[in-house]
Amino acid sequence: MKNKMFPSSNGLDSIDLHGIRHKEALEMVREKIDEVKSKGSFSLTIITGNSSVLQELIFNEILQYTTYNYYIPSWNLGQIIVDYVEL
């Protein structure tokens, strides 16, 4: 399955990690965060599917070391939303 990094129709960036091995997925998330951060404020949706293991890896290896706000929305447990507002 081909990975997808794209701006969604509502202007929010997203990355789809379905079918991607965890090590590669973590690198893709790091790259995508660097890309969107370079533009200033952002909202990024990380689509993980049903992999709670991948979500934990993203939290523990990437997001906990940042100042970004991030959460798993109650309306879709298969994604992580990362928000950053540059002041």
Q: How would you characterize this protein structure?
A:
With 87 residues, the protein is an alpha+beta fold. It has a single domain (4-84), classed as Ribosomal Protein S8, Chain: A, domain 1. 30% of the residues lie in helices and 26% in strands. A five-stranded mixed sheet has the order 1-2-3-5-4, with helices on one face. Helix 1 (22-37) crosses helix 2. The protein is globular and about 35 Å long.
Overview features:
five-stranded mixed beta sheet, globular, Ribosomal Protein S8, Chain: A, domain 1, 87 residues, 5 strands, alpha+beta
Give the topology, please:
Blueprint: E1 4-7, E2 13-16, H1 22-37, E3 42-47, H2 52-61, E4 69-71, E5 79-84
Parallel strand pairs: 2-3
Antiparallel strand pairs: 1-2, 3-5, 4-5
Helix pairs in contact: 1-2
How many distinct helices? 2
Widest sheet, order of strands? 1-2-3-5-4
CATH architecture level-2 label: 2-Layer Sandwich
Main sheet makeup: 5 strands, mixed
* Principal-axis shape: globular
The portion of residues assigned to helices is 25-40%
Described by its quaternary structure, the protein is: single chain
Give the overall pLDDT as a whole number.
89
Q: What letter string, H or E per element, gives the SSE order?
A: EEHEHEE
Number of strands: 5
Number of domains: 1
Q: Give the C-alpha Rg.
A: 12 Å
Straight-line distance between termini? 38 Å
Q: Assign the CATH topology.
A: Ribosomal Protein S8, Chain: A, domain 1
CATH class: Alpha Beta
